[in-house]
Amino acid sequence: MPEDDQVTAPLSLRQRRRAVATREILDAAERHIAEHGPAALSLRAVARGLGMTVQALYHYFPNRDALVTVLITKAYDDLADAVQACVDAAADDSALPRWLVATEGYRRWAITHPGRFQLLYGTPLRHYAAPAWGPTTHAMRRMGAIFERELFGGFTAAQLAATDIPTLTPSLTASLEQLPPNGLGVVLPPPAAALLMSAWGHMHGLVILEVFGHTSYLGAHQAEIFRMAMHNLFTDIHGRIPAAAPYSASPDLRLRP
Questions:
Q1: Of 238, 243, 206, which is closest to residue 223 (Cα–Cα)?
Q2: Number of other CB atoms surrounding residue 213 within 10 Å
Q3: Is the pLDDT of residue 202 over 80?
Q4: Of 9, 38, 206, 223, which is most buried by a Cβ count within 10 Å?
Q5: Same structural domain for residues 47 and 109?
């Protein structure tokens, strides 16, 4: 059978019914998380909310870990979609850096879906371990690639390698050099990778504080504080990257696909 025929072949009735049932299970699980928090998630609770037996649920998800893995992957994908949508909607002549637009999209999704955000970044679920380099990892790296692109887009690998930061220890440099390519298939020079992790921590920390209610006393001013912090962060990072990097013939300074 030609490859195109395989790609466009319609789903069977059984496959369509399974897809609909799986979607209903995921929706029910997300509602349960929104109402009761990630820690209360169980197959029994989800089945009860759907009016089905746990045994019937096992036909779609063999255990809680399988369901959690899909929920985490979907949450990362939905978050990445929301961030990307904000970036895509930003006008090219906007005074706001696209990095800032991306961070505000991240914050907006988090405070709109606090239960699902806590599933990703709250207290780890007991007895759950995500599959090593599985779908949750790939989904997370896809989101990270968006922020990396908006923070470092337009700079060469040589410029990023010459970033003005405190000297990294040899062990940290070696660890950063061993990081896998991001979702764009690119490996950052260690100084840029260290800056990206620091920026992520600053952004994520402020969002965590807000989602968990630790800055609620600021009320509507939380958005203003966040924008100020992200703008300052962006300005500081770009101020550390030279306008033109010193010449180097080393191929290791190229962004490696």
A1: 206
A2: 9
A3: yes
A4: 38
A5: no
Distances (CA, A) of 91 to 97, 145, 231, 238: 10, 21, 18, 21
Predicted structure pTM score: 0.87
Provide the domain limits for residue 171.
72-247
Give 132: exposed, middle or buried? Use CB within 10 Å, 0-12, 13-18, 19+: exposed
DSSP string, 169-237: PHHHHHHHHTPPP-TTS-B--HHHHHHHHHHHHHHHHHHHHHHTTTTGGGTTHHHHHHHHHHHHHHHHH
Same domain membership, residue 85 and residue 17: no
**For position 15, what pLDDT does the model report?**
85
With bands split at pLDDT 50, 70 and 90, how would you rate the model's confidence at 229?
very high
Q: Residue 256: helix, strand or coil by DSSP?
A: strand
Task: Name which of 158-167, 171-180, 245-254 the model is least confident about.
Answer: 245-254
Q: At what angle do helices 190-211 and 114-121 cross, to 10 degrees?
A: 130
Domain count of the chain?
2
Nearest CA to 135 among 66, 193, 201, 83? Answer: 66
Other CB atoms within a 10 A radius of the CB of residue 235 amount to 11
